[in-house]
Specification:
Blueprint lengths: L1 E3 L2 H11 L4 E9 L7 E8 L8 E5 L8 H8 L4 E4 L3 H11 L6 E3 H7 L8 H9 L19 H28 L2 H11 L23 H21 L3 H4 L2 H10 L4 H4 L12 H16 L18 H19 L3 H4 L2 H9 L10 H15 L3 E6 L2 E6 L1
Parallel strand pairs: 1-4, 2-5, 5-6
Antiparallel strand pairs: 2-3, 3-4, 7-8
């Protein structure tokens, strides 16, 4: 097992990788104590059957710059292969403002190829590589050094088997003519907007029981402050204050430090100093907003008569189409998509765009319009033209 700890060694490996058609990539990181993930290790492997072309990059080594790796990620002649890449891509976007390109995500490809819903790496290793994985090092603290041989073997396995998995899935996609389907998904995955975090939108993640606009305005201001403060201090949101603190303050509307001191949930440190002042400022600003500028709760979804039954029919159609196409149902349409189609709210629905529309969306709209019906024959769901 090779571990790269210097910029020179990393540059040599990346130079070799730049002459290859693809490189497999994975990361190990920690996020329990920080807002942004702490990158601890990068695993890379070149095409081949053995471990000779696989390395661990110790991102915590003092003499290492990741500049050669980022240059490789920007090299459009080399395909970067990940499994379940979303968190990895977010890390690289934060680290250097880049998303590796071109990109191939084996989890998405496996869903297109019929391996199930959000199929795990271990499942693909078993089904494609016909071997198992030792997962006993799954809960390693990757920031601690030195890493044991067992931990390093565990990390390296995440990219060595990935080579064969990628080649197998790429061949399946070529044979089925579905490579373009995966390309559509990669366009979403590699769009920086996918990872955009807007503090002003953070309040929408907080569960509230009241739709009162003034209450929501306070929630909005407090959530935005917490998001910015968590980013600035690189701490988890809950370390600033928790969601239930936000809803409590929105309900009690404190105006002074004495009012704030009566909070049941706010920690002692947050009842004084800059955090306390920020909380009171947020409340005051929300209370001063004109009625017209107050946020509004999302409209209550009222199902139209018959929509629930139609949603059930669409669910049956989706299952039939997914089985017929050999594609994971969740990749085609979500439960929310089905409800929206049943209610006639179809603007911008992913299920009605691109390959999803071909596989399911067009028939879903025809079912809603009464142009087709569903029947059963030979233990299978059939479409009947009306």
């Amino acid at each position: 097992m090779r571990t790269l700890t210097t910029t020179e060694a990393l540059a040599q490996f990346c130079d070799e990788a730049s002459r290859q058609p693809f490189v497999t990539v994975d990361t190990e990181f920690l996020r329990e104590r920080t807002y942004y993930a702490q990158l601890c290790l990068v695993q890379l492997a070149l095409p081949g059957e053995d471990d000779a072309g696989a390395v661990l990059v110790d991102t915590l080594a003092p003499d290492l710059s990741l500049a050669p790796l980022f240059a490789l990620f920007r090299n459009t002649d080399v395909l970067k292969v990940f499994h379940a890449a979303r968190q990895d891509l977010e890390i690289f976007l934060v680290e250097d403002g880049l998303i590796p390109s071109p990109l191939f995500d084996t989890q998405i490809a496996a869903m297109v190829c019929g391996y199930g819903e959000q199929v795990g790496y271990e499942t693909l290793v078993r089904s494609i590589c016909k071997t198992g994985l030792d997962k006993s090092s799954r809960f390693t603290d990757w920031s601690r050094r030195p890493l044991s041989d067992k931990q390093m073997r565990y990390a390296l396995a995440d990219v060595t088997h990935l080579r064969r998995i990628y080649l197998h899935l790429a061949e399946e996609l070529e044979r089925s003519g579905r490579a373009a389907w995966v390309s559509e998904e990669m366009a979403i995955l590699t769009n920086p907007e996918t990872y955009s975090v807007r503090p002003e939108e953070a309040w929408k993640r907080i569960k509230t029981r009241t739709p009162a606009p003034r209450f929501l305005a306070i929630v909005q201001r407090l959530a935005a402050y917490r998001e910015r403060e968590a980013q600035r201090r690189n701490l988890p949101r809950g370390r600033i204050f928790k969601d239930d603190v936000i809803t409590e303050i929105a309900a009690t509307r404190p105006q002074t430090l004495d009012d704030l001191g009566k909070s049941r949930l706010l920690t002692r440190d947050c009842r004084k100093g800059p955090v306390a002042e920020a909380i009171l400022d947020a409340v005051a600003a929300a209370m001063a907003l004109p009625e017209a500028d107050l946020p509004k709760a999302p409209p209550t979804r009222r199902r139209k008569p018959g929509a629930e039954g139609l949603s059930d029919l669409l669910r049956v159609l989706l299952k039939a189409r997914a089985e017929e196409a050999g594609v994971a149902q969740k990749l085609i349409a979500s439960a929310r998509d089905l409800e929206d189609i049943a209610a006639g709210e179809t603007d911008g629905l992913p299920a009605l765009r691109g390959w999803r529309r071909t596989v399911f969306g067009d028939d879903a709209l025809r079912l809603r319009a009464g142009q087709i019906a569903l029947s059963s024959s030979d233990n299978a769901v059939r479409i009947v033209e009306l």
